């Protein structure tokens, strides 16, 4: 990685950990904060994640493990509520780089795309529908809620991303580092129990 990309990745990592930014916006803001030209090549997400892990190890080692555990427990709670829709946890909460400022991303794989929304309505859960970029770059409906974390003493964004059941097959292919990109209810439960 060249020095400009390394600088951008390090600056983006700080923004991700300290301000809770997502990777894309963090890289663009880091580019601007560093005063680099708009055409400067940005680092990949894997390179930024490596910097995030370093930043956490250096500056957050005393707080981040408990925050991650609290977020995983909250994710498990929501996954249990939405178990009928084959929930899978992804993102920083799954990969272990989440802090108290991170949101939770749960992919739901539904026979009927409206069934998850109907389940939230039936349980009187306030949500905000939005369209986000999915794991294949396509537009995906997300049902976003604010969930209270008693452990963290704050509201956490929980985003339920609605996919077709057929998408589940491709969702479990290993990522560029050979890791499982998301975990089902049983996998998340094992993570939570391993850290208790």
Walk me through the topology:
Elements: H1 3-19, H2 23-33, H3 45-59, H4 64-81, E1 88-90, H5 91-95, E2 104-110, H6 115-122, E3 128-133, E4 139-149, E5 154-164, H7 168-171, E6 183-184, H8 185-194
Helix pairs in contact: 1-2, 1-3, 4-8
Q: What does this entry look like structurally?
A:
It is built from eight helices and six strands. The chain is of the alpha+beta class. The protein has two domains: 3-59, no CATH class; 64-194, Beta Polymerase, domain 2. It has a six-stranded mixed beta sheet. A hairpin with a 4-residue loop joins strand 4 and strand 5 (154-164). Helix 1 crosses helix 2, helix 1 (3-19) crosses helix 3 and helix 4 (64-81) runs antiparallel to helix 8 (185-194). The protein starts with a helix and ends with a helix. This is Nucleotidyltransferase-like protein.
Mean pLDDT: 93
Count every beta strand, where a strand is a DSSP E run of 2 or more residues: 6
Spatial strand order of the main sheet: 3-4-5-2-1-6
The main sheet comes to: 6 strands, mixed
Short overview:
This protein has eight helices and six strands. With 196 residues, the protein is an alpha+beta fold. The chain folds into two domains: 3-59, no CATH class; 64-194, 2-Layer Sandwich (Beta Polymerase, domain 2), CATH 3.30.460.
